[in-house]
Amino acid sequence: MSLTVYKFLWYLISRIEKHKGDESIASIIPVEMTSNIGAHLTMSEIEDPIPQAAAIPFRETAAGTLEVLITRRQDKQKWGIPKGIIDPGHSAHATVRIESEEEAGIAGCVSQQPIGSYDHHKWGTICHIQVFLMRVTEEYPNYLEQQFRERRWFPWQKAARMMGQKPVRELMAQLPALIAQATFDDT
What we know:
Blueprint: H1 3-18, E1 50-60, E2 66-73, E3 83-85, H2 92-104, E4 106-110, E5 116-122, E6 125-139, E7 149-155, H3 156-162, H4 166-172, H5 175-181
Parallel strand pairs: 1-6
Antiparallel strand pairs: 1-2, 1-3, 2-7, 4-6, 5-6
């Protein structure tokens, strides 16, 4: 099972725990997890969007060029940014740090506030994604998802054009101004 599937299952389990004893939740969980015979997983019945957090990782080269690190699964054409489900007990900032390290092998300073957000249809439901900036301070040679995820630095305008999701393209199109307005954590 992929890391994304595990995270999604963790999200479902947290929702089940939140609604223990609530009969409406029984209709969306697999039969193995309930005594309600015949229950099936129907993602469209989940009312709340799945919360996610994402990072637009950037750096400035010695020559003064603004670059963005983008990623893609090696079996896919579309490029994206590190993002993931905000696990129970984690903040959006913690998720940005964790996902950036796992998916892209990077660490850095995260903007204190999101620079935007958007909704994305996935798994038959809606994910609500908060997008933060990350000024990259470390790039690790090895990272958790390197076997199936490619990472690459591009000039920010080119990275914006390569994004698979329109809301991310639109945010990246404003990148220099967003960076100038942002306040970053020191860690």
